Amino acid sequence: MMAETKTFEAPVFTAQGKQGGTRQLPEMFDGIVNVPVMHQAVKAFLANRRQGTAKTKTRGEVTGGNQKPWKQKGTGRARQGSTRAPNWPGGGTVFGPQPRSYTQIVPKQVRQLARKSALNARARENAVILVDALNFSAPKTKAITALIDSIGATGKKVLLLTEGVKPNVYLSARNLGRAHVMPFSDASTYHILWSDVVVIESAALTQNSAEG
Fold this sequence. Notes:
This protein has helices at residues 35-48, 108-124, 141-150, 167-173, 189-194, 202-211, and strands at 9-13, 19-24, 128-131, 158-162, 179-183, 197-201. The protein is an alpha/beta fold. Strand 1 and strand 2 form a beta hairpin.
């Protein structure tokens, strides 16, 4: 774990992609990165996405096999009671998967610490960028693409965190495979670490800092 405390600055861009100087990031960006906690949060996030519906049939669930295939004695062959025993083709599975839950519960404080560590990890890489309010009257993929190009993130995985839910901004980036839009409050450790560059609406960061 990196324990030294630092302060960070991030470049600020307008919604049209013009740079307007830099701004100091709030206190939550203290440079402390807790790797084990991030690992725990990401592992739980991926586990919780699993459906757990894989299932095979046991010999009691396979159709058929009710009649003894041949008599017990006198044939010279090994005794068999059913053609649906596990040793028969088409028989049941002995220790196959059954429906189960893969849910892992991570305490809220641990999740918050992991998320903060992920943001600090990106800040240490100078990969946090602030942008003015994004207010699209309609979905505009071209506008999001132009913004990504302007901030120098072409070809990189970009996570754009907005102030609250903004459907038009989300729809603008939906067709871009290397860009993802979500409210700042919904971003998990996994999403932050997935990205190469984190773009945050200034108002979302200010509001979150005040609440914290």
